[in-house]
């Protein structure tokens, strides 16, 4: 559900409408963006960040994107989310291409996580 007070979130979701259903959840003063239950983007301080990995980060660097960072316990922490190139905020077609890249990175990250067992060890 989009907060009526966040026009940037509403704009981003509208621009992403060509990639399928994208939902948002409030988190840490921003929003996580999900496709089919997989978080592939986030919004912090009215900036869209897209998921990256070793296969895709170079494209973001070449586009002039910057990594998402925050301060924690006096140190700078960098996550694998990079700012969306400006062109994708102006063009649904560009947004679709960059979101597909981010979604693929999110799926690879999810597949790389070890499976958790619900059974207790004896």
Write up this protein.
This protein is α+β, with helices and mostly antiparallel strands and 122 residues long. The chain has one domain: 2-Layer Sandwich (Yope Regulator, Chain: A). It contains 4 helices and 6 strands, in the order αββββαββαα. The chain has helices spanning 7-15, 57-62, 86-90, 92-112, and strands spanning 22-27, 30-35, 38-44, 47-51, 67-72, 75-83. It has a 6-stranded antiparallel sheet with strand order 1-2-3-4-6-5. Strand 2 (30-35) and strand 3 (38-44) form a beta hairpin. The radius of gyration is 15 Å and the shape is globular. 26% of the residues are buried.
In short:
The chain is α+β, with helices and mostly antiparallel strands.
Overall domain count? 1
For the secondary structure, the number of strands is 6
Give me the secondary-structure category. alpha+beta
The CATH topology is given as Yope Regulator, Chain: A
The amount of beta strand, in percent, is 25-35%
Order of helices and strands: HEEEEHEEHH
* Residue-averaged pLDDT: 89
CATH A-level architecture: 2-Layer Sandwich
Kindly report the spatial arrangement of strands forming the biggest sheet: 1-2-3-4-6-5
Radius of gyration: 15 Å
Rough outline: globular
State the helix count.
4
List keywords for this structure.
single chain, 122 residues, alpha+beta, Yope Regulator, Chain: A, globular
